[in-house]
Amino acid sequence: MIGHPRFRTLERIADGSAADRDRGATKRHLASCARCRAEVAKLTRLSAAARLLPVPDPSPGGFDEVRRRIESGERLILPQRIAGATPRASDDAERAGRRRARRALAAAAAIVVIAAGTVLVSGVSRLEASDSTLEFSPARPSPGADIDVHYRSAGLMAGADRVILRARLRREDDTATGADPQHVVLDTLTRARDGTYRGTFRLPDGVAYAAFAIEDAAGERVDANDGRLWELSVHRPDGHPTYHALVERSADLRERNWELAYEVARELVQAYPDSVGAWLEFWLLEEQRTPQSGSAALQLRKQQEFDRLHALYAPRSTDAPRTAADLWYYAWSVSNVPMRAGDRAADNPDRAGTPMEFWRERVYAANSTDPRVLMVRSIYNVIDNLSEPGRGLAVADSLWQVAGPTGELTRDADLLARRSGNRAEVRRWLLRAVEADPAAAASAGRRLLDLGGYDADAVALLTRAAARLDSAADATRPLHTARSAHRDDIVIRRGRTLAELARGHRALGDADAARLALQEAAALPWDAALLNGLGNGLLALGDTAAAIRAFARLAADPLRSPAFADSVRNRVATVEDGRWAETVAAGRVEMTSRIGALADPRPLRSRTLMLQTADSRRLDLGTTAAGRFAVVSFWSRQCGYALNESPRLRSLQTELARRGIIHAVVAHKDSPAAVATALAEWHAEGLDVSYDVDGEVARAFNAWGTPDHYILDPRGMVRFRLRGAGRIDDVLRIITVLTESESIR
Amino acid sequence: MMRQAMAAAREQDWPDGRLVQEVRAGSMPALGALYERHADMLYRTAYRFVGSREEAEEVVQDLFVGLRVALGSYAEQGRFGSWARRIVVRLAIDRSRRRDRERRTADYLGARASAAAAGDVSDAVALRDAIAALPPALREVFLLREAEGWTHQEIAELLGISPGTSMVRLMRAKKRLRRTLQ
Asked: Of A444, B31, B56, B72, which residue is the least packed, with the fewest Cβ within 10 Å?
């Protein structure tokens, strides 16, 4: 052998996979070469070390969680390509995986909003106006304009001399900076002689877009345009919406109606074709509606548009730093070069000279404090320094000094802090996360409890979180929600925080404080998510009587199987049969009354409920559902919320079919093949979707957003309307109670 | 009662194949017995790919929540444990690939993530950092081959690549690790 063997050959010797002809020659070389022997030894040690990497022990009770998920009705479909006996991932499947990832992130926004309890499904009146009218003059205002308001009520506000105009205001940079829009009272409208309400307000500085609802002085009667809200966008002097108005409107609609959001995004790129931010917004929504079969063509279009923008902006060095940041992001989204945390450009020759690196350099050269520029720098800080988290945290500190409290920066720093294993750093950045966003206090408190050693900090944060829920009530109230309903939501969230707080007190050894917190939580309204933890906490404190009440209230949930009720009861084995049954019955009454409060009976607007099945047959829903309870769920493959819920929706459909209850999942006019593809990608094959070809069924229900569930009684009356994601459990609870008892009218 | 059933389900009396049949028929105790028998091994495999206890536990839970339906396509050729491990690897790889890009894109477009999104605190050992820093394609092959002991043929089937590509990726992964850990 002349010279040293190649690395590849040495690696295969160490791996034991070298070909015979290489093995002989290389072993002869190794016999006389200490350097190569050392290399093989290092490679062998590397393999051994990889096998011996420490793995922390799993938490106890993992199967309890599996059982809980199964018993709560979750039915998870493992991807076909891995569930088979001989799994094989084709290139197509890999591409599908990437598409799922993109769609999942689009849906992530939905999930986050739901978690915050602020999701609503409503919007503009393009599909159909409600019976009330709210008019603005001028209808196309310039920034800061004075606006005359004219509201005519369809009867909801009867008897009120004054009504409140409430608005969600989106300022020009809200979307770019990740700021929350504001919910404010803009004006009090006074009733005129003709019975209409009038008022005037001035658009606050910087507002580009606003959505509105009308309510009475108590905030209990709310006219949200039958869920659609009313809208106002700031316009340019030539009568076209401003760039920021379109961006903010699209972002607002993304949380309510993705089909309309897409139309706005399309208008955005047509009106502002040279704006990189406009294209990013558009592609997010375009990807959502493109079936897998079109993904290659879509990627090509994205690439072509990127090439045009790159050629347009690359020669110019005077553009806004944000343009460079947006182009970096765009380059990343079309790049085929793998890049992940810890992968430095210097280590990856594939990345050298790519547009991604070009725009990275431009971003760094700008040295700007623009939020998106700082976000790119924060992302690169993680990528470059994940292997040296101490250095990364120092950079994060310097970015914090420049950027001030921002949630994105604290999340990146949190990743570095966890990687460093330095618990004090984890704590420091968790506290900074709360400084950036006080709403993060509860989750930071939970993290500190899990971290251990900072229980006092955790208790302080959780106490603050519980108090904040009380004080910030109206500022976080969605436009379409009445004050009392919002208070109920807050009470439930407060209960969950109290349960965590009790855990903190227990960790500090303060059993009395823990008991007080749990007893306060136990006095709150029925909430399945809270009761299990509550029962366990009370049991741990030795308060068996209160624990029995909590478990019995949980066992009253009709979604729980009898086996689950038995297992819950077994945790408090001392309870007598009679007492247990009595407590469960009381829980059932409580749960039923909570469901009764959700009732919103109203007639259908029309009896025409003709649908088209996937195989083009006609289905008369009115006739099919006559004399029975039925559920109608509006769904769209272009809606991230709806797609995300598809597997659970399929489980609901299966369960209702088992009980002999009609469940129509209704989509607007769409291609059944494209719907089938979307369902497969979201692991919801088999969901039976029907099509509302002319929009007549949506008009009959006055439905607008997705997912949106309606429960029809045997007389064809809409008894319940459950809007937005996360309501499937409630649909099943309601149907169970309705079909088991006549207590809800 | 559940614990007693699980304790009774000793491997020699209740082989995996029999438990699988019971799970197909809807038996929760049988599912619990399979879990008790395999969850620890599956968790350790998942952990190597996702690097967080919380996420590794979720991966294993996902498998068992979806197991009854998935068993419809389980041909019972070979051992249940191997089959389940392949699924867990695939789930863990999917999750690991998804996590980084989702978080970053959501951040970038102003879709604010929950501050509770982060997982637990892990020990920062140099090798784990270096493995985590590998590009996904190289990292997956390295872990499958070195930590899990799969053959290149098995890796190729799982990832949809050729065995030769698997060997090349392993070599590149080790080359990078050697450079990083010098």
From this structure: B72
